[in-house]
Automatic annotation (TrEMBL):
Protein known as: L-threonate dehydrogenase
Pfam families: NAD_binding_11, NAD_binding_2
Catalysed reactions, as listed in the record: L-threonate + NAD(+) = 2-dehydro-L-erythronate + NADH + H(+)
Lineage, broadest ranks: Bacteria, Pseudomonadati, Pseudomonadota, Alphaproteobacteria, Hyphomicrobiales
Family listed: Belongs to the HIBADH-related family. L-threonate dehydrogenase subfamily.
Function: Catalyzes oxidation of L-threonate to 2-oxo-tetronate. Can use either NAD(+) or NADP(+) as cosubstrate, with a preference for NAD(+).
Source species of the chain: Rhizobium freirei PRF 81
PANTHER family: 3-HYDROXYISOBUTYRATE DEHYDROGENASE-LIKE 1, MITOCHONDRIAL-RELATED, L-THREONATE DEHYDROGENASE
A single MF term (Gene Ontology): NADP binding
Length: 322
């Protein structure tokens, strides 16, 4: 069941393939990465007709196999949808899938609710929301957190802001994809602000996890034993429990990639600079993620920053250099 905390979705469109079953509730998910994929499957489980759009043909084929309708353009996905969820990587991609050629606004009906789930600078979110609203749409600034496992189970956290009318229209979608929704304001923007702070902490915690694991490896401590101890001790964090396991198993299959935190911590430091805030830990973590990306690890799991520290320390990590 979703907990809402107040602090302050026709016809098959062109270029689509897959299920033709009609339901009253119709949603479109643009961007079927780990979080968008989980949201799309959660919506299907909740009885929605779901059109999914992605640039990867293999992902679209798999989505159709799971009962969704696969679309090759945002415009075809958005046609006749009641709600459109955007899960692409950054604000430039959001602008492209919404306002560009074959963008969602070409076919979206007036008063459709858009959920902007991409992590973006608050200023970018506000500007995009204003363009959507000027086109007669409703908007919920709805960045998410919780990881791919919770996304698959419909138990993510949503840091949301938007008008009461937008929230009312998006309520059944939010019920399907989330365990908790924080209503942070009546205009788009505050949701992205809070997500920015979350990403500051997440990025720093991943970097700290990598540093701790690398030091332990260099000191000759068994990493599985260390993981078992720390995860139930005061030094633990959600990121240590999650990413620490990746390092112990030597599994750098990307759930969230290094390049995601290059972007997100870049947002943090840029926005902090504009506000006159000092963020030395975020800056140090960003430098590590940038170094990992430049070393060719950008598409690996974000825990791969441990490889950079291990190489510098002369430490041996599971699955690295085997």
């Amino acid at each position: 069941m979703r907990l809402v905390t107040d602090t302050g979705i026709g016809n098959i469109g062109r270029n689509c393939r897959g299920s033709t079953v009609q339901h009253k509730r119709k949603a479109a998910v643009i961007g079927l990465g780990s979080m968008g994929w989980g949201a799309a499957l959660s919506l299907l489980k909740a009885g929605f007709t779901v059109r999914g759009c992605d640039v990867r043909s293999d992902v679209l084929a798999r989505f159709a196999e799971n009962g969704g309708t696969s679309c090759t353009t945002p415009a075809s996905a958005a046609e006749d949808a009641d709600a459109i969820l955007v899960y692409v990587v950054n604000s430039r991609q959001v602008e492209d899938v919404l306002f560009g050629q074959n963008g969602a606004l070409e076919t979206a009906q007036a008063s459709t609710v858009f959920l902007l789930c991409t992590t973006m600078a608050p200023s970018a979110t506000t500007a995009i929301a204003e363009r959507l609203e000027a086109s007669g749409m409703r908007v919920v600034d709805a960045p998410v957190s919780g990881g791919h496992v919770r996304a698959l189970s419909g138990e993510i956290t949503v840091m949301a802001s938007g008008t009461p009318e937008a929230f009312d229209q998006a309520s059944t979608v939010l019920d399907a994809i989330s365990a908790k929704v924080f209503r942070l304001g009546d205009r788009p923007g505050p949701g992205s602000q809070v997500k920015m702070i979350n990403q500051l902490l997440a990025g720093v915690h991943i970097a700290a996890t990598a540093e701790a694991m690398t030091l332990a490896a260099k000191a000759g401590i068994d990493l599985q034993t260390l993981y078992d101890v720390i995860r139930v001790s005061a030094g633990s964090s959600w990121m240590f429990e999650n990413r620490g396991e990746h390092i112990v198993s030597g599994d750098y299959t990307p759930r969230s990639a290094v390049n995601i935190f290059v972007k997100d911590l870049g947002i943090v430091t840029a926005e902090a600079g504009k506000a006159g805030a000092v963020t030395p830990l975020a800056t140090a973590a960003l430098d590590l993620f940038v170094e990992a990306s430049e070393a060719g690890l950008g598409l690996e799991d974000d825990a791969a920053v441990a490889k950079i520290l291990a190489a510098k320390s002369g430490a041996s990590l599971p699955g690295v250099g085997d």
